[in-house]
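Collaborator request, handled under Task 6.
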Amino acid sequence: MCTGKCSRCIAVTLYPLALISIICNIVLFFPDGDIKYAQDGHITEEVKYMGGLVGGGLLVLLPALYINLTGKQGCCGNRCGMFLSIAFAAVGVAGALYSLSVAAVGLQNGPLCKVVLIWGTPFKNTDSSYLTDDSTWWQCTEPKNIVQFNIGLFATLVVTSSLEAILCAIQMINGLFGCLCGAWWIKG
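Structure tokens returned to the collaborator:
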């Protein structure tokens, strides 16, 4: 496979991953499908950092567009285009790592929820992990099923941003080969 075809494959794979990241981050703003929690400021702090929207979404979507265009220039593209794809892919790696970091912290700290009459993060700074002990989830009385909601969406962000980082790193290596080897890189 030549570097241009590899670029196109990577770009096409990055598009749905970026879209999933954007959707997950937007959905996290509306626990229980209700806007009142966002309006009242009762959403998990890590959601406000918009790791999925900005990092795993926009900062990965822009390189995906450029990488796709570079790959369309024919097998191996031009050396300058492949060199620039390295820089764009590095931006994608940075965005994916930002999304991964925010999602991991969101999973670690747990959701913001109502515990009896007070809003707080009951699982933050505790000895046991709420992720493996679902018997503690009852502490969150509002929004309904917020623990499962946060775990599902933040875990999805962790997986998608990890894949994005790997793909963008592969594109950095692919771009390097395309830049250094030019047209005599493996064709086929």
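The cover message to the collaborator said: "Residues 3-186 form one domain. The chain has a mean pLDDT of 87. Please let us know whether this matches your experimental observations."
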